[in-house]
Design brief:
This protein is α/β, with parallel strands linked by helices. It contains six helices and five strands, in the order βαβαβαααβαβ. The longest helix is centred in the middle third of the chain and has 15 residues. The relative contact order is 0.28.
């Protein structure tokens, strides 16, 4: 069975985030944010790709597997059930299905993949719904990663 990881960067440092990915021997980080920008230093698309490269981890942004704006607003307001409903509807779109097919192909290749989004708790994040959709195409053993806490100076 293939292994798939997920990780959120909420509250993480780049160092702690990379440490969790290295520990899990992730080869490819798949960013499933609709908008690959972040106010957290080091987690916007270009900076993140550069940081991952220092750990020999590839980066891929699959925007079609990101949550639409109204779903992100629901998540920020703590309305996770509503966000899940919005995302499930979005998952039926052509863009989402195309990116899901890409993800299926990558996972089937045997590459060690981690799905990334912002939310720390995978139960509240849409990446768990992406994992559920993926499970209809390929059997995976899912491992939810959490950034390593940095040691105090």
């Amino acid at each position: 069975m293939l292994t798939l990881a997920t990780i959120g960067y909420e509250g993480a440092t780049v160092q702690g985030f990379l440490a969790a990915l290295r520990e899990a021997r992730v080869e490819l980080l798949v960013d499933v944010r609709a908008v690959a920008m972040s106010r957290r230093p080091g987690f916007a698309k270009t900076a993140l790709a550069g940081n991952l490269a220092t750990a020999d981890i590839e980066y891929l942004h699959l925007r079609g597997l990101g949550t639409p704006a109204d779903g992100r607003a629901a998540a920020r307001a703590g309305r996770h059930t509503e966000m899940h409903e919005i995302f499930r509807e979005h998952l039926a779109t052509a863009a989402a299905q195309t990116d899901l097919a890409t993800l299926v192909s990558i996972v089937k290749s045997g590459k060690r993949v981690a799905l990334m989004c912002f939310e720390a708790d995978p139960k509240h994040c849409h990446r768990s719904l992406v994992v559920d959709a993926l499970a209809h195409h390929v059997k995976t053993d899912v491992r939810h990663l959490f950034p390593v806490e940095d040691e105090p100076d």
